[in-house]
Each structure stands twice: as C-alpha cells, then as structure tokens.
Amino acid sequence: MSGADLPSSLGASPGPGGPDAEPEGALARVAARFTALAERYLPDALVFALLATALVVGAAMLTSKATPLQVLSMWGDGFWDLIPFTLQMSLVIITGYVLATSRPVYRAIAWLAAAPSSPRAAVAWVALLAMASSWFNWGFSLIFSAMLAKETARRHARVDYRAVCAASFLGLGSVWAQGLSGSAALQMATSTAMSREVREIVSGGGKLPGGVIPLSQTIFLWQSLVSVAVEIALVTAVMYAAAPSAERARSAAELGVDLGPSPLETAPLPAPRTPGERLEHSRLLSLSFVALSGAYLVSTFVVAEKGLAGLTLNVIILTFLSLGFLLHGTPARLMRAFREATPGVWGVILQFPFYAGLAAVMTKTHLSAAVAHFFVGISTAKTFPAVIAVYSAVLGVFVPSGGSKWVIEAPYVMQAAHELRVNLGWMVAVYDLGEALANLVQPFWMLPVLGLLGLRARDVMGYTFLVFVVLAPVVLLLVTALGATLAYP
Question: What is the pTM of this model?
Fold first, then answer.
C-alpha cells in the first residue's frame, strides 16, 4: 500500500486559506488540542527523568526495607549501569544514519517519501512504514522512519512536521516488541538467555521442556499476528484522521527547523592531493573491512547456527556499519556521514544514566516486584492478560528497557500464568504489547531521533498521547479476546 493507493478522499488538499479549505475532523481537533497542551505544559524530556527519579527514590525510601543511605547507594551505583547500552544506542543512531544517508538507500527513502498525494496521506504513510519496518527490526526502523519523515517534509511543503515526525516513532509505540527483535520473545526462545532458576519456573514441572518458549508460540502465534495487523490498521487510520489539513499544518520552517539539503544533494568531497588523502578515498580499504565483518556475521548466523538469537545490538551495529562502508564506498565519505550524525546523540548520552539509576532502585529495592504482586493479586484467568499488559505499560514508564525489565519480571509473571492456567507464550506477547504502549507516553525512546529531527518531546507527544488513548483500550480488548482462544500451557 502506498500513499497513491489510499482512497481518493485522501487526495490533495486545497490551497491554504481557500474557500474550499478542508474541514478538520474530530480526531484532528483532539490532536490539535493535545498538541497545544503538550507544547504549553510538557517540559523537556530531561525533566521527565528528573521527576521520575525523585518519585522512585522517594517511594523506595518510604516503602522498602532498605535504609535511605542504601537507596542512595543503589541509585548512585546504578547511575552508570547503562553506559555500555548508551554507547550501543548512540552507535545505532550514528550507523543507522550512515546507512540511511548512503545514496542507494536514500534514493529508496526519497522515492517512498514522494509517494503520498496529500499532507495527511503523507503522515499516514510514514506511520504505516514505521510500524511495518519496526516489526522486522526496531533499530533499523528508528532511523529509517526518522529519515523518511524528514524527507517527506522536504517533498510535501504543507505537511505538519510535528505529525509526520510523531508518525515516524509509532513503530516503537505499537508493534516492535511483537516482531523479530522483541526482547522478551527472543529471551524466552534462547535457552542461554536467562538463569536456570527462571527456566525452572517457566518449565512448570516439565510442562514446557527446558523452560524454552519458541518463537512459534509467541510472535508467530496467529493471535499475535492478528493483533499486529489490527494495531497497524488502527494507528494508520488514527494518524490520517489526526493530521492537520494543509491549511492548519505547521511546516518545519514555521517551527524553526532547518531541514538542510537532501543527502542526494551533498557536494562531492574534494579530490585527494596527498598519499594520505588517497588512502582516505580508497575503496579497497572499505571493501577489506566489509569482507572481514561479513565473514564474522556469516560465522555468527550460519556456522554457529544461532539464528535470530544471534541478532544482538552489537550485531545490528556491525551490520549497519559494514553496509555503510559498502554503500558510501570510501572511508572519507563514511567519516563525513559519521560526523553529520554525531550531534543527534547528545540527548541519549545525557539522559540514559538517569533511567539506569531509576531501574537500579526499582529492582534492587524490589519495588518492581511489589508492583507485580499487586497486579497478579487482582487477576483471574480471564483478566490476567489485560492486567499484565497494563502492568507492563506502567512499569515501562519507569524502566523503559524491555529486555532488562523482563529478566526481573519473568519469574512473577510466568509463575502466576501457571497458577492461573493461562497460555505462557501468549503472556510473553502480552507483556511485549504493554511494553510498547509505554513508549507512547514516555520520551526515553524518542530521544534517539528527536536530535536528528530537530524537535523536542513536547512537539510530538500530543500525537503519541492521542494514539495511546485510542490504542490502549483496543489492546486490552485484543489480549483478552485472543487469549481466550489459547489453551494452557
């Protein structure tokens, strides 16, 4: 489906201010109201981290058995726990940008950006592609969708820049965790990914041999695929209806954002003049690195037979970097793309340590366990999926890392699933559904792309909050109704 394939009613909008100006629908008015409130009252994303830190540290001091000094120690020591992950995420952003701005890849992005026939269709188109790509890999989708939104704004002068940039983020706010890079599903399918104690709990006395849940019982359940399809269709429709008409849109220029030239218009590098510069322009050096990294990647997936379990963040980064070398052709071109991408990672470097401190306090004081026990305690077999989806979303606001969060919460969730006799594979999918919903109201995962887009969290969260309001009850209905079609275990 492309923008050109959308219904004719989604066609080009009349000129600004004309007598036939396109009327705003109800969702567009609601989105405008949410956006206005967000722009007026929402602080920068760093303030979210500071407020959450005060709330969690205060709650831990008041409710946990740890002394205030112990809580402070947990927070201070944990503040640096995400340093490796911070560097990984920075490299995902930079290498993703390097790959996306290579001429072959960017030609495809530019072609896709030119497909829609109207500003509103452009917003829906970006949302659709963001969700579809995130199902395959969230890291690629994060950068691909941001670059697509930026190019769409270049090609459609009257598209609302806030709406199209919000649309680019919606893959991480909906279906990514139910896809091929979903953290919890991959962990449950990989026998070495979790402790023996957790595996014994999941096994339930041999009901699931080895405590391993294959992907066929999580992301490839027909129930999971149906929920993905429903989410994609619903969110695409919501973003089309919510996007401002051309007359009421605010372009990038009106928001003070300089989109700069398209990567396809970048001036060529000056010709090398010295032996050292000729090495910088050597395709042979780039190809030698690609051959070396390619051999490693083949050994990882084919020789070691790791399959999807081998698709780690480090492997994704190396793949992006290798393709960047291949498609840019020379070290000099790759270095220029790297330099251009670097300013986009400042928000990640500044703010990720605050969330690391939050996660440390939540887990080491067992606050997260207390929250889990509360939700499990109010559940029945029928309500358990919906309750866990809510729980995962709530916890995701404070610990926005699906993989690390699942390691801690899996024992509580899976033990309760056994006791309530609920399908365990579906509970993994349900947990991932809730995890993704949290990203619509928590700016943590917006940070990597906001720097590239030149926006702040408040510029896009009016739209993401609207999607959350519409999508959350549908998700709760889906996990309950589809869960009823699955048998224990």
Answer: 0.83
